[in-house]
Design goal:
135 residues, mainly alpha
């Protein structure tokens, strides 16, 4: 019984090692908040996007041009948690534009993926980002 009562005792403050809330699990990974790492990830992503097939690169450039119109301070693309419906509506409108311009337009899914990639780059200080807002 004595062991059980010791287990129920609170741990002394200095034994805990933390006076604040514990870190979320993902913040315990080394270098998770390092800006140089984020820049390296963006450079890697842009390098690999250069290897996309010619049609996909053309769609990507056109999507970036269209997204320039919604890239301003306070835009929904910079919301902490962008609304899925708004992003879907934006992807739908980009699809309509590409259907009018392209002989072989991309699929809805491809437009959505390319749009989200472009938004990611802009949110994290990618080369096209105008606001430079980091989350």
């Amino acid at each position: 019984m004595e062991l059980h009562s010791k287990l129920l005792q609170p741990m002394p403050e200095k034994a805990r090692g933390w006076n604040e809330r514990p870190l979320p699990f993902y913040m315990a990974y080394p270098g998770c908040l390092d800006p140089a790492r984020e820049e390296m990830v963006l450079q890697d992503m842009e390098y690999l996007q250069q290897m996309y097939p010619a049609d996909v690169k053309r769609y990507q450039r056109r999507i970036a041009q269209i997204l320039d119109k919604t890239d301003y301070e306070g835009s929904m693309i910079y919301d902490e948690y962008p609304d899925r419906c708004c992003l879907q509506h934006l992807a739908d409108s980009i699809c309509r534009v590409l259907r009018n311009e392209e002989e072989h337009p991309p699929t809805q899914d491809m437009v959505a993926v390319l749009l989200l990639d472009e938004i990611y780059k802009r949110r994290h200080g990618g080369r096209r980002g105008k606001c430079g807002i980091l989350y």
